[in-house]
Amino acid sequence: MTQRSTSGLFLLFALSLVLVIGVETAANPQVAFVLVVCMVGALALAAPAGAWVLAAVVAALTFKGLVTLGLLPGIAAYLDIPIAWGALLAGFLARSGSAGRAGAQLRWLGLLAAAVFLAWAFHPSEVLRPLLYLALLGEPFAIVCALLLDPPSPRLRQFLVRSLVALVAAQVVLSAWQVRRFGLGSPDKIQGTLWGAGAGAHVMSAAVVLGCLWLLASRRGRLNEWVLVAVAALVAVPIVADAKQVLFALPAAALVAGWRSGRYALVLNVGLMLSALALLIVFDPVSKDAIYRLQEARSGNNGKEQTAKIIWHRLDSNPASLAFGEGPAETVSRAAFLTTPLQLQSDSPLRSLGLRPATLAVEVQTQATQVSGGRTSFNSGVSSMLGVFGDLGLFGAVAYLGLLVSVIRPLWRRRSALAVTATAGWAMFAVLGFVYDWWEQPPFTVFLGVLTGLALTTGNEQHDT
Question: Helix, strand, or coil here: 117?
Fold first, then answer.
């Protein structure tokens, strides 16, 4: 069969699938959504995994802002999810790298998938519920596995690195413009390219912090005035955006990055750590709110503590739930809250999926707010870490922990700038996962997944910029 006839058959197949999706959208939106995901996966045949990874990180960090500006339809804000899993499919099909390099990660990812569907089997619900939860929770690991299975060519790798740098720089430039437009009195509007996202200020700031650590790691012992200016600009972003969660997690990331980079870098990163702590404890206006929250937590008026108590009581009363959870996207994960009016906007494309609201999520949020007396994210009922335990039980928690270790362990043995940054990012990831829904925030997790995949598919270079 000629290449021309093959292309014609593929086009006919694609047009037929689009027609089927159009019909199913009117009859059954959930089936239509599954068909769209399958179509995206089929298109991964035409490109290497690295190209799809590039598309995923660009989509995760820019499409939400473009949707807010009306330049893209609402569904575009979620396109990074099928693109990331399409990258994994492309990696399986290419397998130009050693499949053994991704073996451990793939086994743990498979175990996490098993945990999700076991939880769904014990608590049956809509078929899309476990798929949505697994797709969101496993997205960064799918990207890591994709790059391990099909390592990018030197040219594509360079393009990926430069794209990550450009995305970080775009956050700084746009944040400066947003400060000029809205002033320092509206920190929640300092969102970079994530304009319109609920937690855009925090998530954008986390990507910028990773960019700052990356810059410091790549310039070990070779700082000059321009690097210091760039570091100052990068550090200023989470400050003006009032990203207290990121500042709270920065010490863990800075300590790990400094430890892995050597004595000189350790001093620099400890300086960053102390600066973050000083902002949280000493300087107004950040300190007033941070100290107040710490005092409330010490006195027992903390929403996360209340959330943990509710989840534990719910699981402890039922052995099956303790082992396999209350069901995917049913407790306090981001996926669970995306099914409720608390986070599901009236014009959100997810509303068309017809998922019933997670009743426990609403109950937990109400009680957490009553106990804490506030509606800040630190005191909310949302928590990816507690969500994994509540949704998937002990089996799912062990599977997710094993997946994390399978990614961090090989990173720890490498000393490249990318490896140091990615390791620090996972340290920040672990802390933030308890505070809010960070394990399910694609702009942060996809960015971290790409850094990790690039670090694991190269030698021990000292510089990766």
Answer: helix
User: Which two structure tokens, joined as six digits, stand for 139?
Assistant: 């997205």
The Cα–Cα gap between 59 and 173 comes to 19
Q: How far apart are CA 190 and CA 324, in angstroms?
A: 40
Phi, psi of 132 (to 5 degrees): -65, -45
Cβ count near 322 (within 10 Å) = 17
Question: Which CA distances in Å does 436 have to 57, 66, 257?
Answer: 21, 25, 23
| Cβ neighbour number for residue 313 with a 10 Å cutoff | 9
User: Of 235, 317, 323, which is closest to residue 279 (Cα–Cα)?
Assistant: 235
Q: Cis check for the bond before 285: say yes or no (omega within 30 of 0).
A: yes
Contact (CB, 8 A) for 87 and 148: no
Q: Are 418 and 177 in contact (CB under 8 A)?
A: no
CA 465, CA 457: separation in Å to the nearest integer?
15
| Segment 253-269, tens digit of pLDDT | 877 776 665 555 556 65
Query: Which two tokens mark 1?
Result: 């069969």
> Per mean pLDDT, which of 31-35, 142-146, 243-247, 293-297 is the most reliable?
142-146
d(CA 35, CA 172): 38
pLDDT per residue as tens digits for the range 7-59:
444 444 444 544 444 444 444 554 555 566 566 556 556 678 899 999 999 99
d(CA 413, CA 210): 19
Q: Which two tokens stand for residue 264?
A: 């000189």
Work out the angle between the directed axes of helices 154-182 and 442-456 (0-180°, nearest 10).
150
Residue 105 identity: Q
Determine if the pTM surpasses 0.70: yes
Check if the beta carbon of residue 161 is closer than 8 Å to that of residue 465.
yes
